[in-house]
Amino acid sequence: MSTLDNLTLKPLKKVKLSDFVTDEIEKLILDNTFKEGDVLPSERELMTAFGVGRPSVREALQKLSQKGLVEINSGEKTRVTRPCTQTIVSGLSGIAIGLLSQDKEKMQFEHLRQLFEISVVREAARVRTEEDVEKLSAALENNLAQVDNYDRFIETDIAFHRTITEILGNPMVTTIYESLVQWLIRSRNPETFAKLHQISCEHHVEIFKAIQQGDPDLAEREMRHHLDNVMNNA
């Protein structure tokens, strides 16, 4: 009896050539064989190195680009980059937009935004400086001035909330906020939300006052009240 008869062997897993090339180049980037800013070998050189055709190399480079590991520009050589928050969030956009077409998932996103912004506004009230307060005041004034213009109100509404995130001095927080709100706006009914502009302005004023006073508890209450109203009309 063969020795193999007593072993449980797993069949070899078939791997697409492009996936193999993607994995190998990714390893070379992550171990700094190819450093940020380096030019990758040409398509022909990669074809020779991996023993694959041009379609497999091009597909691999596209996958690496989606991961934020390389930058591909027409007419230029492919360069190594590093993924950033925006790269990660952009990769989720298609999934998020698909989920937001369903009422249950839309409410879950609204709840996620609420949890996120409540945490942000508490910290903003705790660490804000006089300069931060001045910037937030300007953003608030811009928002109040656009209450009768739907498109401009949305722009200045987002800018007001974005300015709050910027108080934390963490670009990742701002990027996540912008992505969340952009996904949600696509799913909203303009006629419904246009009616809420005046009350949103009133809420923004109270949120501003809480941050100006440096009161995290009050800032949380005002932001929660504001976003509860948004969720109830989503």
Automatic annotation (TrEMBL):
The keyword Transcription regulation applies. Keywords: DNA-binding, Transcription, Transcription regulation. It comes from Photobacterium indicum. PROSITE patterns: HTH_GNTR. One of its GO terms (molecular function) is DNA-binding transcription factor activity. InterPro entries: GntR_C, TF_FadR/GntR_C, Tscrpt_reg_HTH_GntR, WH-like_DNA-bd_sf, WH_DNA-bd_sf. The keyword Lyase does not apply. This is GntR family transcriptional regulator. Residues 15-83 form the HTH gntR-type domain.
